[in-house]
């Protein structure tokens, strides 16, 4: 049984790996070339998307999908109300109407007053 021969360069020499570095790998090391590649790819993707929607609109009269607004509190879609104070969109179960000014506010921009027999919601501006 034979054993491995010893390294003739000693243990202090650096490890050498066989590796081919092509133009693509060299570009990844250069930030400017990498940015150019990313910009070209982004441009091609945007052009393809634009051509697709132009073709689809001419042939089928398809409209691009509208962004769906999601409730900022419970993440439900179909939000119907925007908070008057902060402007974020909320579903009907996550909003309150102010007793004084009658505007719509979210749970973060309103407070509930328990002083009377029933609970009353006030916005931060009208809160007693």
Question: Which characteristics define this entry?
Answer:
two-stranded antiparallel sheet, alpha+beta, elongated, 128 residues, single chain
What features would you describe in this structure?
This protein has 128 residues and is of the alpha+beta class. It is built from 2 helices and 6 strands, in the order ααββββββ. It has helices spanning 23-29, 31-60, and strands at 81-82, 89-90, 95-97, 104-106, 110-113, 120-123. The strands form 3 sheets. It has a two-stranded antiparallel sheet with strand order 1-2. The protein has a two-stranded antiparallel sheet with strand order 3-4. The N and C termini lie far apart (93 Å).
Mean pLDDT: 79
Give the SSE string: HHEEEEEE
Strand percentage lies at 5-15%
Helix/sheet category: alpha+beta
Radius of gyration, in Å, reads 31 Å
SS elements, strand count: 6
Helical region count? Answer: 2
The main β sheet shows up as: 2 strands, antiparallel
Strand order of the largest sheet: 1-2
Distance, first to last CA: 93 Å
- Helix percent reads 25-40%
Q: List the uncertain runs.
A: none
How would you sum up the global shape?
A: elongated
């Amino acid at each position: 049984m034979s054993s491995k021969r010893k390294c003739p360069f000693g243990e202090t020499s650096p490890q050498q790996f066989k590796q081919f570095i092509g133009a693509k790998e060299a570009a990844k090391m250069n930030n400017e070339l990498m940015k150019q590649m990313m910009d070209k790819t982004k441009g091609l993707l945007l052009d393809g998307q634009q051509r697709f929607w132009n073709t689809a609109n001419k042939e089928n009269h398809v409209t691009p999908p509208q962004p769906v607004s999601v409730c900022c509190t419970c993440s439900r879609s179909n939000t119907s109300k925007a908070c008057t104070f902060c402007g974020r969109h909320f579903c009907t179960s996550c909003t309150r109407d102010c007793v004084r000014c009658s505007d719509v506010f979210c749970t973060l921009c309103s407070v509930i007053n328990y002083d009377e027999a029933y609970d009353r919601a006030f916005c931060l501006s009208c809160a007693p």
